[in-house]
Amino acid sequence: MPELPEVETVLRGLRARVLARRVAAVEVRNPLVIHGGSGEFAAGVTGRRIEALERKGKALAIELGPRNHEAGPEDAAGCFLVVRLGMTGQLVVVPSDAALQPHTHVRLVLEDGREEIRFRDTRRFGRLRCCTRDELEGILGRLGPDAPQISEEQFLDAARGRRGSIKGWLLNQQILSGLGNIYADEALFEARIHPLTQPGRLSAEAARRLHRAVKKILKRAVELQGTSFRDYIDIEGRPGNFLPRLRVYQRTGEPCRRCGRPIRRVVVCGRSSHFCPECQRRPRHAASPSPGGWRKRDRIPQGPLA
DNA sequence: GCAAGCCTGACC
DNA sequence: GGTCAGGCTTGC
């Protein structure tokens, strides 16, 4: 699943392979993955040079230069290609004559015509979008600080007074951006915090521990080029190497690597949360899996609570 | 049936 | 405004 370390790996790969190259042609094979009209998308991207690549959270922004200074104002201004990989999205750089893999939705043919960037996405949760600088600022502005950049003070301030679960809080991209289900579970284990703990009721010490844990886990995962649980590969088609380092994610029933107790699973905010019931004790004031009392549409959470 | 990012909308 | 359920999607 592409979270921050996987997107960072893709970003670094693209910087090495496609920076300063021009997009000669665009083929949208499935308009569903394009935010907005696919015709406008193709027209907006074609003929521009890749000037820079940046990332915030899980969002990838590719800066495209002016097409032609002598043409109209639209061509003279640059634009940005924003990529969200969603759950199973992949960006790969391949020779143009490479066989087309299933679920290839977009092709960006590079200038010499011998190589291209392909966007593949089995689940089709990913999106590509062509936008102006103002629009990009709006998109990125809705995201909280990039998780590796957030200061301890910002982190503690953001948690203050928050109800609900710390797990849901970590997944909220408006608070801090980049964490998904894998690294949220791993960071909570590292910090020894139960996923149903309320952010606002964390001790300052626990909140600092979590802040350090988030950074530590992400740093290590970036160094190991991410986690390939099922679909994730980098732009060269290589899997990440963090999988053997996972201590709780998708290890339900397996022994905790710290204490040996079986890892448990609880559903929080509709997401599986994996934790060690010994190392991550449930606080007395844990968030309810269904805050605000039981309503008609409430479901019994799956799996026993700690 | 479950996985999961992200958007929308409902609820308090 | 905070918070969470629902729905999208398809392979296992």
Descriptive notes:
With 306 residues, the chain is an alpha+beta fold. The chain folds into two domains: 138 residues, N-terminal domain of MutM-like DNA repair proteins, CATH 3.20.190; 147 residues, Helicase, Ruva Protein, domain 3. Helix content is 26%, strand content 20%. The protein contains eight helices and ten strands. A hairpin with a 2-residue loop joins strand 9 and strand 10. The C terminus is likely disordered.
How would you briefly describe this protein structure?
The protein has 306 residues and is an alpha+beta fold. It contains eight helices and ten strands.
Predict the CATH topology of the largest domain.
Helicase, Ruva Protein, domain 3
Tally of individual domains? 2
Poorly predicted runs: 290-306
Strand-and-helix sequence, N→C?
HEHEEHEEEEEHHHHHEE
Radius of gyration: 21 Å
Helix share bin: 25-40%
The best one-word shape is elongated
N-to-C CA distance: 27 Å
Question: Average pLDDT across residues?
Answer: 91
Outline the biggest β-sheet. Answer: 4 strands, antiparallel
| CATH architectural category of the largest domain | Orthogonal Bundle
In the sheet with the most strands, the strands line up as 1-6-7-5
Structural class by sheet pairing and helices: alpha+beta
How much of the residues is beta strand, in percent? Answer: 15-25%
At the first level of CATH, the class of the largest domain is Mainly Alpha
The number of strands is: 10
Task: Report the total helices.
Answer: 8
